[in-house]
Write a structure and sequence with these properties.
There is one protein chain. The chain is α/β, with parallel strands linked by helices. The chain has one domain (42-229): 3-Layer(aba) Sandwich (Rossmann fold), CATH 3.40.50.2020. Helix content is 40%, strand content 15%. The chain contains nine helices and seven strands, in the order αααβααβααββαββαβ. A five-stranded parallel sheet has the order 1-7-6-2-3, with helices on both faces. It has a two-stranded antiparallel sheet with strand order 4-5. Helix 9 links the parallel strand 6 (193-200) and strand 7. Helix 4 (78-88) packs across helix 5 (92-109) and helix 5 (92-109) crosses helix 7. The longest helix has 18 residues, at 92-109. The protein is globular. It starts with a helix and ends with a strand.
């Protein structure tokens, strides 16, 4: 272990890592994000308070046991920049770090005790071909590293839409997008309390589609956790 840390420290001298938020050089003990940017993050209290804004987003629409976001996402804010770096700049280390922070919050709030399995929200197949990885899978890996909860990838898959939605009405668009999602190996989630993980939530449409098909299985509970949600201010 000491040898690995020593090798890592030497590597940092020749190949210095940079902050995924501000691009400044990281100190040896910093991972993915610098201390200055960490202090600028805007945490929520969603995992210790019921009826928070994310839970209210799904209230009366689907049955969930809990829902919450880790950080607020103000325009130009650190959390938004980290998610952008994960999705578009191949900074998977940022996703791992964000997942670890979410995992710590789950341990502190006691939410992890109510979970059997982590299920990442799937990415569109076309985007997967461009990006080569699903950002939600990376976040889930970070959560798992801290909580020791197992991750079940590809329980839900998402097919690319074969038809244009330009001329479709609002209901038809929703119905069309809903049909893009499919459950694989439902036996893996039978009687399980699952945590559905996404990077951000705005309208909640993607998560609603996932929950709608999960409700047709034998899952016992559905919890939702995302990294970011819009600021309340």
């Amino acid at each position: 272990m000491i040898l690995q840390e020593w090798i890592s420290d030497i590597a940092c001298l020749f190949f210095p890592a940079t902050c995924a938020s501000c691009n400044t050089q990281l100190f040896i003990r910093e991972k993915a994000i610098c201390t200055k940017c960490q202090l600028e993050l805007e945490p929520t209290d969603h995992f210790t308070s019921r009826n928070n804004p994310v839970e209210k987003l799904f209230e009366g629409r689907v049955r969930i046991s809990s829902a919450g976001a880790l950080y607020y996402l103000p325009q130009g804010g650190v959390a938004r920049r980290l998610i952008h770096a994960l999705k578009y700049k191949e900074r998977q280390d940022a996703g791992i770090w964000l997942g670890e922070m979410l995992g710590r919050e789950m341990l502190l709030s006691g939410l992890s005790k109510n979970i059997d399995l982590i299920v990442p929200v799937p990415a569109d197949k076309k985007r997967m071909q461009q990006r080569t990885y699903n950002q939600c899978d990376i976040i889930a890996e970070g959560v798992s590293a801290v909580t020791s909860l197992k991750v079940a990838k590809e329980v839900i898959i998402r097919h690319s839409s074969a038809t244009s939605q330009t001329r479709l009405g609002r209901f038809e668009r929703w119905q069309n997008s809903r049909q893009q999602y499919q459950i694989l190996h439902p036996e893996k989630i039978d009687h399980k309390r699952i945590l559905l993980i996404d990077d951000v939530v705005t309208t909640g449409a993607t998560i609603l589609n996932c929950i709608s098909i999960l409700e047709k299985t034998k899952v016992s509970e559905i919890h939702v956790a995302v990294i970011g949600s819009p600021s309340e201010n």
